[in-house]
Design a protein that fits this description.
Pfam families: BatA, VWA. The chain is an alpha/beta fold. The protein has 10 helices and 11 strands.
Length: 332
Amino acid sequence: MFENISFANPQFFWLFLLLPVAMLWYFFKRKEQTASLKMSSIKGFQKGSILPKLKPALFAMRLLALAAIIVAMARPQTEDISTRTKTTKGIDIVMAIDVSSSMLAKDLKPYRLAALKKVAADFINERPNDRIGLVAYAGESYTKTPITSDKSIVLRALDEITYGQLNDGTAIGMGLATSVNRLKESKALSKVIILLTDGVNNSGFIEPQTAADLAVEFGIKTYTIGLGTNGNAMSPIAYNADGSFRYGMREVEIDESLLKSIAETTGGQYFRATDNKKLEAIYEEINKLEKTEVEEFKYYKYEEKFRPWVYLAGVLLLLEWLARNTLYRSFI
């Protein structure tokens, strides 16, 4: 009956405490309000009217009317809420992903690149109001997808990123410069690069620091992530005769000083991910640091439902008045 109903003045429900008091008063006082007549015999009245037994119904109708008035005073109403959102600060993000052979190392499960793609997909899904692009780099770099608000395109492009699409190597400067190039014409209020690598800059013709300076010039913040465990990791070390990789233990080398320098120069932060959980935590932290400002407007439409209760109270009081002044007018 009261499903999806709210009350504007619920404090009036405290008045229901008066109803038990009224019932007790009626129970103790009703005999005093009824005239009595002592007779030696009632044989002549054995076929009397049923009205005396129904007289308490008058008081019951008055109580029900009072209860209906209390509900009406509480103002039952239905509420219809509509919302409209307005993005006031959009963020353009480019994710620069290292796809060199070392990203096949198995210190993250099942291997580094697969672990990264899973976490990056979750990150993309949690940025519905931002535009995102992808840059892949190894010995060289290229734009996998330009910045776009179509997350299905970005996710499909992310899924297609594999090892072997580029010459092997780690051109951190090239990856960062290509990312800057994708963002330099952006009109967004905030521009961010998330650059991930698991190695040392050893390829490319653009120095990482030069690319970092370009990012500063165009107002682009860069978060850097070093991916790989501490110590040694099961990594590709040679090719087998069938073209597959031969794995062996290899020392994990990450140029952390360079990554820290890039982050500090551009106003970002450096993170180190040594396992799957830490990688997930890093992307969650970046997601919290880079928030899109969304302004939400809520419109409330109320429909009052107190009128039926007023009508019910009126009908009950009218019936009680009619019965008292007709059927029970001369009742003793």
